[in-house]
Amino acid sequence: MVFLYPGTHLDASLIQPFYDTHALLFPLKNNGFLENVMHKGLRNLMIVVSLMMLVFWIFGLKVWDFVLNIQNGSHWFKRYHRQFLWIFVAMVISTSVISVLKRLSMHSCPWDLLAYGATQPWIPLFGNLPAGAEMGHCFPGGHASGGFALIAIYFGFRDSLPKLAKAGLILGLFFGFAMGLGQMMRGAHFMSHNLWTAWIVWMILLVQYLVWPPKALIPQV
Predict the structure, then answer these.
(1) Domain map of the chain by residue range?
(2) In whole angstroms, what is the distance from residue 178 CA to residue 169 CA?
(3) Which of 22-26, 35-39, 77-81 shows the lowest mean pLDDT across its residues?
(4) I need a labelling partner for 41 at 20 to 30 A (CA). Which of 10, 65, 146, 180 fits?
(5) pLDDT of residue 177
(6) With contact defined as beta carbons under 8 Å apart, do 171 and 150 qualify?
(7) Please, are residues 145 and 100 in contact by the beta-carbon 8 Å criterion?
(8) What whole-number distance in Å separates Cα of residue 1 and Cα of residue 127?
(9) CA 54 to mean position of chain CA atoms
(10) Per-residue model confidence (pLDDT) at position 218
């Protein structure tokens, strides 16, 4: 993405179908479905999923053993207790890091750029903020990070429930790119914003997986 992507002009090509060159705007910017369902709705759904992991972890605490009639740790709340906490923490960390990076970013959203009828200049990936330009706070793609964060399910269960792990990987990629596409259609992000988000989230999850395995290692006897 650093060396090949900028030279292909894919960002401009992929977002062009959603831009009206005569009206000089993105017609779908305030589209009700994209804004309320694809943006707000899916964002809230991802929050609910992460909170569900936290709730499952809470139900796996010993204090609930008597209430839930859990015996010998056989209930799945207890069996995958560590994994539920791991997934919750992973989703929070990955989306938070993306939010911080976005907040510190000088890159503007497509709908704020001169090339698309607004006022801000386009800046190369490692370029400097031109004099008079404003910080754009639009890179990487924050919204897509919520979907890609579901990949935490893959890392969380890859060593215990492979089928569920693969489902989590598929869901994470699907929702991440779907949420990213919705923002592209509104003019809020380029495809490269979403690709960088996917890579950063993946690396965060991988590092957490290596440093703090979601499944406790069994010591060798």
Answers:
(1) 9-124+135-211
(2) 14
(3) 77-81
(4) 10
(5) 98
(6) yes
(7) no
(8) 15
(9) 18
(10) 44
| Tokens found for residue 121 | 């200049």
What's the Cα-to-Cα distance from 168 to each of 62, 87, 149, 209, rounded to whole Å? 27, 11, 10, 15
The H or E element that residue 125 is part of is: none
Contact 5, 192 (CB under 8 A): yes
Residue 101 burial (CB < 10 Å; 0-12/13-18/19+)? middle
Amino acid at 27: P
> Closest Cα partner for 93 from 209, 216, 217?
209
Radius of gyration of the chain measured on its C-alpha atoms: 20
137 three-class SS: coil
Q: Are 209 and 203 in contact (CB under 8 A)?
A: no
Report d(CA 185, CA 32) in Å as an integer: 12
CA distance 190 to 186: 10
